[in-house]
Automatic annotation (TrEMBL):
Protein name: Phosphohistidine phosphatase
Organism: Brevibacterium paucivorans
CDD domains found in the cross-reference section: HP_PGM_like
GO molecular function: hydrolase activity
EC number: 3.1.3.-
Key words, A-Z: Hydrolase
Pfam families with a match to the protein in the record: His_Phos_1
């Protein structure tokens, strides 16, 4: 039963700088680490991020938490963050293409990016009307297989204050 996690990056600075270069705040770093610890209960081995600084920092915090949690297991293989440039300034179709590119043998995948597209993708997949998808939110889908026509309602968690 594969797991798909769609995530919005943690809280980022609004300092004057190019959007691509915005980094996580101290609060955002703590949120990302907390999300990673929560997500370590799932067998996530395929992790993909937008290349923007705030998403790579969020994704790396999740990778670090997963590797810490998985390290003691006999089948331990370190997970790494992959970058998909198309996830920055993406469309819902870009996210769907990224989801469809997940290899069949992957037990779980995590994709982190930006709103409003993450939010819109979760709503389109599940048919659920989310009121919000704040920074540091994750939507966890438990799927019968990767080849599904209808996605179940996800569990949505928020890791901020």
């Amino acid at each position: 039963m594969p797991t798909l996690v769609l995530a919005r990056h943690a809280h980022a600075t609004h300092d004057p700088m190019p959007d691509f270069d915005r980094h996580l705040t101290d609060e955002g770093e703590a949120e990302a680490a907390l999300a990673g610890r929560f997500l370590s209960q799932f067998p996530l081995t395929h992790l993909v991020s937008s290349p923007a600084k705030r998403t790579t920092q969020t994704g790396q915090a999740v990778v670090d938490a997963l590797n810490d949690a998985y390290r003691g297991r006999p089948d331990f293989n370190a997970v790494e963050l992959q970058f998909e440039p198309a996830l920055y300034d993406a469309t819902v179709q870009t996210w769907l293409d990224t989801i469809n590119a997940i290899p069949e043998d992957v037990p779980g995948a995590y994709i982190v990016g930006h709103n409003p597209i993450v939010w819109e993708t979760v709503e389109q997949l599940s048919g659920v009307n989310l009121k919000k998808f704040k920074p540091s939110s994750v939507a966890v889908f438990r799927l019968p297989s990767w080849d599904v026509d209808t996605f179940p309602e996800p569990t949505v968690r928020y890791f901020g204050n």
